[in-house]
């Protein structure tokens, strides 16, 4: 029986109790596909989903989790916790999209600073399981965004696994500015971020 968005949301809200660490579901998934967003797990006041909840959602066919993180949350003191969450999620057999998701307006240097810290964390995760969404709905002027995106990709690539193109791990979603062509960088991985982030379905 398909799991509706309302039902899945209810499961998530009901299951924010037992920390999701320890048990795993060894079902590998190679491409970010059917999934959902879990806001506030990577946050100062974290809402941690229950282990049983994640296992049930995985068993029902969900394959990917989008984890928004505010640049303001990304500091040297939070990096270990971020890596722990990414490790826990992939341990359940999910793909992860680490989504830089600001809570308000921000400047390019804030994005650069956040990814300077997150790049080594990304490098410590499975390259076929964890993906980077450089910025949720970029709203910069198109030329400025392309320049920023390419700089971020280069910075992340500098600490990535040698021989593996960083674009294999860069996810792109819908921009806030319709003038931005998110696929104008050759080799970018186009994953279904809208279904992952906005719609819940099991098949």
Question: CATH superfamily, called what?
Answer: Glycosidases
The structural domain count equals 1
Strand content: 5-15%
The percentage helix is: 25-40%
Mean pLDDT: 74
According to DSSP, the number of beta strands is: 5
Number of helices: 6
Using the coordinates shown, work out and report the CATH topology: TIM Barrel
Q: Strand order, main sheet: write it out.
A: 1-2-3-4-5
CATH architecture verdict: Alpha-Beta Barrel
What coarse outline follows from CA principal-axis ratios?
Answer: globular
User: Which regions have little confidence, pLDDT < 50, spanning 5+ residues?
Assistant: 24-29, 176-183, 186-203
Concise overview:
The protein has 203 residues and is an alpha/beta fold. 34% of the residues lie in helices and 10% in strands.
